[in-house]
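[job 0417] fold request received: Aspartate--tRNA(Asp/Asn) ligase
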Amino acid sequence: MRSHYCGELREEHIGEDVTLMGWVHRRRDHGGVIFLDVRDREGISQVVFDPDREESFKLADSVRSEFVIELRGTVRARPDGTLNKDMSTGGIEVLGKELIILNKAETPPFQLDDHQQVGEDVRLRHRYIDLRRPEIQNKLRFRSKVTSALRTYLDGHGFLDIETPILTRATPEGARDYLVPSRTHEGSFFALPQSPQLFKQLLMVSGFDRYYQIAKCFRDEDLRADRQPEFTQVDIEASFMNEEEIMGMAEEMIRGVFQNLMNVDLGEFPRMPYAEAMRRFGSDKPDLRISMELVDVADLMATVDFKVFAGPAKDPKGRVAALKVPGGAVLTRKQIDDYTKFVSIYGARGLAWIKVNALEDGVEGLQSPIVKFLGEDVSLQIMQRLGAKNGDIVFFGADSAKIVSEAIGALRIKVAEDLGLIEREWAPLWVVDFPMFEETGKGGLTALHHPFTAPSCSVDELKSSPETALSRAYDMVLNGTELGGGSIRIHDQAMQKVVFKILGIEDEEAQEKFGFLLNALKYGAPPHGGLAFGLDRLVMLMTGSDSIREVIAFPKTQSASCMLTDAPGEVSAAQLHELNIRLRKTP
Ligand code: ASP
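[job 0417] inference complete; emitting structure tokens
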């Protein structure tokens, strides 16, 4: 057994005989003396082998990077002038006496220090080596601390950790299901849970009162953004609590984790209604580290002789919004063209702009391809409304409200990143008062959260105007990322049926898909609600990582495959036969 981890040795161990086990991080031959940097999960120690111990010296000379070794030696102070202040073990070294090679290693596909030189696919294929990098090790250790802190909070507040099934029926959260064929029930399939939503609600009906689970969820989505087909939620549900109480508790939990693990005080989280978030920031997860806001100018544009603006300005579903970027007049034509391309991803057909060069010269001081269409009055009125100053640039979006909010909302963040306009390190908030439904685009309605979210109105009000009904849902947002979300649930069967109906799920289908829930609601379902946090995203934000893949031990690629195991893979004809599956020949 080891006596110490390599990374633990300090000056206080000088004179002690130690046994270390680990990997050869680097081997250096310094004129007849061999230096081995030996690494384990706690760090690296330098071990020196002198030629006077012939046998171990020879072995030390023979080892290569990533060999696994055991060694015995004595800790001593590093000679003057060789101290390494950048290493926690930099004040000492170990004089190696005995060396055993526990296992050899072939030359690894990349050196840990040079991981950036190889593509992510190579690293993912050899993930077990990539995971040896101290940076990733630290991230996964931090993740473990986060889950432990969350558990401590929840355990301490009476939440019970209860597991729910992985092989189950569809739980709609807006994505496609991963399906698993049943061998024993020909032609039938399990769905992997998109979340434990329905089971946690049933646990409330069963009287467990407070539940949590660090739960794997599965969503078959087109992986545009930084998503994973399987990811981890901290899933929480409680009975007899209203939204204020649930939000209060969740906020206290997250604040505590930041305080304890990072010494960061997130303060009290402000609340913002969904409509306000969309209006001011063009997003339901506004990044409040940036103070720029979208400003509506449709009233000023409705009369201009310029259809691109006047059209959406007069359309009740349209929007014309301006974004003033302080100091943005420095942007070059090329940069503006790049932003035009950027907003086109969100469906915007162009990006109008006005550079404010010299306001004191009136419209003459505005540089823009559109001022001539807007006319002097409107141009100056807009400048006034925005409080524009010399040196600013103003961008405009004019289209359907959805496109303008998304495009200019995203531009706001992109420009802020590019021009260094992010003003704070952390900006949490709650977004509340979401609409119950949104339009599907095919004439129907779909649930903005999920179909089990309670409306904040009565059954009758919901029936008469579902489009304007608000829900009792809440999202926790941090730095423009949705950390978690949830709602008070429907606990009344009649209300649940109405919501299904509005969503176009007729009684028969509702009974077939969600009969177990509808039945449970008949037998004494308490008022309840909850939420779920995306653990991967939380850890990503806390560790300042660029992608959730950096905080997941074995992540999948953007195309939802595992480079390491080559999953998904083909299966044998015999297995398919057993499952009664015949594959359609691909042309
Ligand atoms: N089940 C929800 C989700 O996965 C969270 C919740 O409503 O508790 O987004």
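[job 0417] notes: The mean pLDDT is 95. Residues 6-103 form a domain with the OB fold (Dihydrolipoamide Acetyltransferase, E2P) fold (CATH 2.40.50.140).
[job 0417] exit 0
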